Amino acid sequence: MFRMAVAEAGRLSVPRDRWYNNPLVRSIAIQVLLVALVLGTVYWFANNTVTNLHDRGIASGFGFLSQRAGFDMVTFLNVTAESTYGYMLLAGLVDTIIVSILSIIIATIMGMIVGIARLSSNWLIRTIATVYVELLRNIPPLLVILFFYLAVLATLPDVKNAIQVGPDISLSNRGLFVPAPVFGPNFHIVLIAFILSLIIAWAVRRWAHARRMATGQGFPSGWVSLGIIAVITGIVYVATGDPLTFDVPVKTRFNINGGWDLSPEFTSLFVALGVYTASFIAEIVRSGIMAVSHGQTEAARALGLRGNLVLRLVVMPQALRVIIPPLASEYLNITKNTSLALAVGFADLVAVGNNVLNPTGQSIEVVAIWMVFYLGLSIIISVAMNWFNARIALTER
Amino acid sequence: MTDMQSQGDVFFVRQEILKATPPPMRVHGVWPWMRKNLFGSIPDTVLTIVGIVIALWVAIPFIQWTLINATWSGDREACAANTIGACWAFVKANFGQFIYGRYPDPERWRVNVFFVMMAAGIIPLAIPSAPYKGWNLLYIYVIFPIVSGVLLIGGILGLPPVETPVFGGLFLTLLVSYVGMAMSLPLGILLALGRRSKMPAVHYVCVFFIEICRGVPLITVLFMAGILLPLFLPTGVNFDKLLRALLGLSLFAAAYMAEVIRGGLQAIPKGQYEGAKSLGLGYWTMMRLIILPQAITIVVPGIVNTFIGLFKDTSLVYIISIFELLYTVRNSFSNPVWATSTTPASGLVFAAAVFWIFCFGMSRYSKFTEDRLRVGYKR
Fold first, then answer.
1. Which of chain B's residues have a Cβ under 8 Å away from the Cβ of A138?
2. What's the helix, strand, coil split of chain A in %, to 5?
């Protein structure tokens, strides 16, 4: 009787043994189908593209990069209408990197301040920080950029009545004027001395740390390193005879001459991106600090550390572990958002690419260059951040 | 001690009554609150003063500009004469255009019906206790798209046809974000499942797609949809520009959505998978009945955040000449009838307010679901 039941059950499960129910067969079939589908689509697209390009008389390939561009743009590298398309794109790339770095610096500093302010025990400071965050992160970044460009910088007074932001820094509807550094012939010696002093300071810190670990004796390594750097660099600077001067913007009757003229497009782009992303970084910093359990703060207090030291030695190192990964993706977002430069007419990689794409028709190549650049940058930033993350990660016994 | 001494001889016993100590400081009321929150210490007081200065320095000019000195009515002359206040007359005059784009005037009721139908689909879906979620989803994914497609484009049932290039303004922003949201969720679920798949080909295809989309700016994806897609298709085959923008935006958002959903899938303990399998459920049944309902519930805040990002990103579709709200507003700046020095700022503040209301509403909703989910962990 029992045997029969088993046999019955066995017979019932027979259909399960059919070849098309075998998980391995299914898995291989699905994968082959998917790969065939993907390759087929790619082949179909490629085939159509070749036909379309042939019909339009566009030669594909990157040969156009060495052709004369014939248009001019304002970039940090010197470009003229005689420059090649390739050089133009390079100039756009440099602009993208400069804007990204400036925005990242602004966003990090402001984000840190606002994030800590959101946790302040002072009600007013906390409220101001909350209003800042809630206001900015619920508005498209493009709108923030356009607001700075069309509503703030365009309505500033002209150069004659420029607003003095700081000594020799003035803001007008022509953009931001800042002193430009002029490097003398001996400047590289100062640079070498500076790097040397950095190495010495680092060695001193290492020695001080090792001695502290061994004997428990403290050493004011921070002040000493600062002194070493200042003294060595200062002496070499004076000895080589003032190799660095500043070209200060001078206000003449109708214009401002000299210095660096940061165009309104550039200024509004990096300020807006910095201010916008700061609201996201503030939230990251806040949640990172809140993630450190209160027991840590209390234990640090019990050890007799003061408020400032508690934050610097106990809370921040632990908070950084939570902060770093999302911070890295925020930096990537800034870099990608610099492509909004197109809207204000600043010559970043995308805007230059758009200008190259229209006369040449090399849209595939230009989009490929964009993608390679942004993907490459994503990879570099994430690798750097992973390295940093691994360094500060929790070291357990 | 056995020998009793008189009380007066005990030198350590106090003879006189102590003076009453003052009552403890008040802990309720305005002044104690201010002392605790604003003037706790000297640095705190300094911070408060700095805060007051910042708040007044920003708020007073803003209120003056937006309310006190603003031009509320009139025409261009009135705004041009007033350079220190917002030009709300411009916003008022162009309000219809900002909302409906260039949708023909007599047909605007169709857009209004679209708005109402959209709200009727989304609001019950957002309320957790509202019944008939299945029917609601059917409405969101099938009934509403078909009905509103017929309604907006027309050409049948006696409705005059309207071309998609005249779509614009807030209406188009909402349309694009609705389609983007509705498409990105199922696509994102599929991509997330694919990324977690044990089949190498499926896994790598999904990883490749997700990482490419997340690694490049939206602008390049829109350029691909706008410029490259016609090149990829056979000669003569071309489809609507709006449709291409929707495709690009949906795929882009799906990649971000996939990562959010993957986070939810990873949070489901292995026992749930094993339990489902031991009940004899197949892969799709297990996902549909056991895993996804739990995984998606956990990541609702993340999904809403992706929706907020998508809503903000719709402001970029102007790149391939789809005239959403922000572009419609910008476009009206150059209109000579209204060009003044305060027009751009007024228009942008209006657009910012509209975007802000929608995004802030969504972020509040995300907070609400977060708090609702945390109920089980509350101590």
1. 308, 355-356, 359-360, 363
2. 70, 5, 20
Position B13 in a domain: no
Let me know if domain A85-179+248-392 sits in CATH 3.30.300.20.
Answer: no
Model-wide pTM > 0.80: yes
Phi/psi for A70 (5° steps) reads 80, 5
Amino acid at site B341: S
Contact status, residue B76 vs residue B337, Cβ threshold 8 Å: yes
- Residue B262 domain-assigned? yes
Where do we find the tokens 């040397």? A196
Residue of A122, A371, A375 with shortest CB distance to B38 = A122
pLDDT tens for residues B340-365?
Answer: 878 888 889 999 999 999 999 999 98
Contact A274, A110 (CB under 8 A): yes
Look at A125 and B231 and tell me if their CB atoms are within 8 Å. Answer: no
Assess if residue B269 is contained within a domain.
Answer: yes
* Residue B180 and residue B119 share a domain: no
Complex ipTM value:
0.84
Contact A364 B312 (CB under 8 A): no
| Interchain CB distance below 8 Å, B48 and A367 | no
Amino acid at A156: L
Asked if A374's CB is within 8 angstroms of B220's CB, the reply is yes
Helix (H, G, I), strand (E, B) or coil at A176: strand
Q: Which pLDDT value is given to residue B61?
A: 85
Q: Measure CB to CB from residue A139 to each of B216, B220, B356 and give the nearest one.
A: B356
Contact of B154 with chain A, judged by CB distance below 8 Å, is answered with no
pLDDT digits 0-9 by tens, A90-147? 888 888 888 999 999 999 999 999 998 898 888 888 999 999 999 999 999 999 999 8
Task: Tell me if A138 and B313 make a contact (CB, 8 A cut-off).
Answer: no
